[in-house]
Structure formats: structure tokens, C-alpha cells
Design brief:
The chain is an alpha/beta fold and about 220 residues long. About 50% of the residues lie in helices and about 15% in strands. The protein is built from eight helices and eight strands; from the N terminus they run βαβαααβαβαβββαβα. It has a five-stranded parallel β-sheet, with helices on both faces. Helix 4 packs parallel to helix 5.
């Protein structure tokens, strides 16, 4: 299967679709935070440097992120395809990733841009509730995602809570920043002919089926 880059504002569902694609096709799901922590555990010079930065809350440079990405995508678990989630975050990282792929002789794959109306996004983020024990996610504005018992998790009966930054003011700042930073990336990948835009304001099954059609079409074409 083609490798995937997911572009999506927080709340558009990229985590959900990455999980479903991983289950169905065996993709490796790669997030920047996860690979940095994984690379830090290796114990070599770079790993120790990353661990020290993370432990001290210091910003991790793009150069180190590139090294961690390169290490990860050359591991055996990525041979059958991987999903990049949260990378690239800006145009410079997109160009840096292209250089990594060129060095390794790998193809970019497909870039899937999940789009959703701001008003629906607002309901998803402000209505989101998370189980403190098992991490299950609910939404008080969506009947299908409401917990059966208010304030309690259906799966483990743990308490569910609202994240401190899941409010309208914080959401607007995050969304505005995302669009400002991501627009150049979208244009960049559009010019390369690898960008696919998918409406995620539908039932999960409908959006997932469109993504699967894109992936299967890409495989047939190549």
C-alpha cells in the first residue's frame, strides 16, 4: 500500500482513520512525539541527545526530527506502508522530508487532506470528553458518541473529563494557526499531484471508504 501523510486540523478525525487503516491494512502509525520517544530509547548518541531534550522540555530541532523520521521509516515494520501523523507541520519540513525520501530511494505516497466545516469542528472539540482511565473518547453533542451514563465511561466506568484547552477560545487559536501554517503545505503537495482532499464531515464508514478507494486506486495506477 501507498504511504500516507494525513493533513487535518485537530478534531477532523485523522487519529480515528489512522487507527482504522492500521487495523485493516497493517500500516504503521507514526506520530512525531512517538518516534522521538522511541528513538530516545535506543541508547546511542542521538537517542541520548533526544532523551535529554525531552526530559528538560527543550525544543527538538527539525534536524533531529529528520534523523528520527529517517531511522523509523527504514525499520522493518514500515516496509508494508506507514502513516505520518503530525508531520510535516510546515513547508520547510515538507521539503526536508522530500530530501529524506530522495536519499532513501522511497516514494512519497499520497497526501490526504481531511476537511471539515468550522462549525462542526467546534462541536467536535468543545463537546469532546475523555476517559481518565482508559482514554476512550466521547462527545456530548453527538448522540452516537454520548456516554450511556453522564460523566462515566461505557467501557471501564472511569470518570470522563473535558481537556482544559477544549474551549472555544483555544480552539479558534489552534485552528487559525493550523490553517496559516498548513496552506503552503497543501499548495506544495497539490503542485506535486499527490494531494487528495476528503470530506470528513460524514459517517466514519463513508469517509473511510473514500480513503480506501483512494489508496486502492493509487496502487492500481502504480
Amino acid at each position: 500500500m501507498k504511504n500516507i501523510i494525513f493533513l487535518a486540523v485537530q478534531g477532523a478525525g485523522k487519529g480515528t482513520f489512522a487507527k482504522l487503516l492500521k487495523e485493516e491494512y497493517g500500516y504503521t502509525h507514526i506520530s512525531t512525539g512517538d518516534i522521538l520517544r522511541e528513538r530516545a530509547s535506543v541508547g546511542d548518541e542521538l537517542g541520548n541527545e533526544i532523551k535529554n531534550l525531552i526530559d528538560n522540555g527543550v525544543f527538538v530541532s527539525d534536524d533531529i526530527i529528520y534523523q528520527a523520521i529517517e531511522y523509523k521509516i527504514t525499520q522493518p515494520e514500515c516496509e508494508n506502508g506507514y502513516i505520518l501523523d503530525g508531520f510535516p507541520r510546515n513547508l520547510e519540513q515538507a521539503k526536508g522530508y522530500d530530501k529524506i525520501l530522495e536519499k532513501l530511494g522511497k516514494e512519497l505516497g499520497v497526501v490526504i487532506n481531511l476537511v471539515i466545516p468550522d462549525e462542526i469542528l467546534k462541536q467536535r472539540i468543545i463537546g469532546r470528553r475523555i476517559c481518565a482511565d482508559c482514554g476512550a473518547i466521547y462527545n456530548i453533542y453527538d448522540k452516537a458518541l454520548q456516554p450511556r451514563v453522564e460523566g462515566k465511561c461505557d467501557k471501564c466506568e472511569g470518570d470522563i473529563y473535558q481537556r482544559a484547552d477544549d474551549n472555544e477560545e483555544s480552539m479558534k487559536k489552534r485552528v487559525d494557526t493550523y490553517y496559516k501554517v498548513t496552506e503552503p503545505i497543501i499548495d506544495y503537495y497539490k503542485q506535486q499531484g499527490v494531494l487528495k482532499t476528503v470530506n470528513s464531515n460524514r459517517k466514519i464508514e463513508e469517509t473511510l471508504n473514500e480513503i480506501k478507494e483512494i489508496l486502492e486506486s493509487e496502487d492500481v495506477d502504480n
